[in-house]
Amino acid sequence: MNYLNLLAGGAALGVLAGCWGYVKGFVWKLVSTLIQRVEVNDANLCQTLVGYLVPRYPRSRVYDRVYGTFYEHIKTVEYNGLVPYEMFGQRSLILWNGWAPFLLGRGHQKQGSAPHEHDDDSRGGALSLTFLRGTFDVDAVIAAACRERNELSWSFHSLTRSQQRRFFIRHVPDIQKKGGEEARQGHLYYHGIPWYHDGQYRPLGYRREELGRGRAAGSGALGLLIFPRRVTDLVEEIKLWRNNREWYQKRGIPWKRGWLLYGPPGTGKTALARAFAEDLDMPVFVYNPSKTPATSSP
Q1: Which whole-number Å values give the CA distances from 57 to 103, 110, 166, 234, 258, in the listed order?
Q2: Which of 234, 256, 260 is nearest to 245 (CA)?
Q3: What confidence tens digit (pLDDT) does each residue in 84-137 have?
Q4: DSSP-H helix ranges across 33-129
């Protein structure tokens, strides 16, 4: 056995181990000249990017999948039921921009950061994009994704441009854990967009057009209730305000109105609020002052 060779080999390994930090830094700098990694920490932008990228770019068939269900109205049967879906953006996914691949990944949520209010327990963490330099225009993609999200959200705000309903009821604080359809309805919307129109969800077994409640012509919740004259006048006043948004905008008047309903229990206050919100296709937020945390003033 040649001990000199062993000593020389050990010395070489020792030098390599001592210089490993420099070697690793050099290799990483060399790789970083060819590969770029972009990180997105904003929860809104993360969801917007996933919903924009997944439907537009071909994806690899080999990836870890995430499935779930929502309780949604199914138009073909006129009943509510469980609708399964595949959800993207929670696991790493390889997409293709022409000939060049790029990696869409999700990191761990940072310690001390609060999850987004629309996130499930499994969500959270930064979104990362890794790609070859010069093959992916991040600025253009982010701008296009936000522009599409805004246009889609605005279209659902307009009663004349969409046949989907924006009416839902959300309780504050959230009572989703207590169960019930209405408790979950508010979480099926993201900035006014139904979940099945969000690109990060892929409904299974149903087309997007088959989901959600449409506005049936000639039907209305207010027509099923009987109110005295002063209440019907209030309903007409609410309709007048709802249908004249441009009148307020042209005169620089905030398009806001408030009404206070009071009376003994069982006189129809809640039924009236829900009925005109459903007919006017507006969301309802229910606040419980006894359970809502008070904010301390400075």
Answers
A1: 12, 28, 29, 51, 46
A2: 256
A3: 999 998 899 999 999 999 999 986 544 444 333 344 434 457 899 999 988 999
A4: 43-56
In our burial notation (b when 16+ CB lie closer than 10 A, e otherwise), range 48-61 reads: bbbbbbbeebebee
CA atoms of 156 and 195, how far apart (whole Å): 12
Q: Could you tell me the strand order of the sheet in which 35-40 lies?
A: 35-40, 127-132, 100-106, 93-97
Cβ(66)–Cβ(86) under 8 Å?
yes
Q: What percent of the chain has pLDDT over 90?
A: 24
Q: Phi then psi for 185, rounded to 5 degrees?
A: -55, -40
Pairing assessment for the beta strands 284-287 and 169-172 based on DSSP bridges? parallel
For the four alpha carbons of 151, 152, 157 and 158, in that order, the dihedral sign comes to positive
Q: Classify strands 169-172 and 35-40 as parallel, antiparallel or unpaired.
A: unpaired
Q: Do residues 144 and 55 lie in contact, with contact meaning Cβ atoms separated by under 8 Å? A: no
> Does an H or E element contain 203, and which?
strand 201-203
* The model's pTM: 0.57
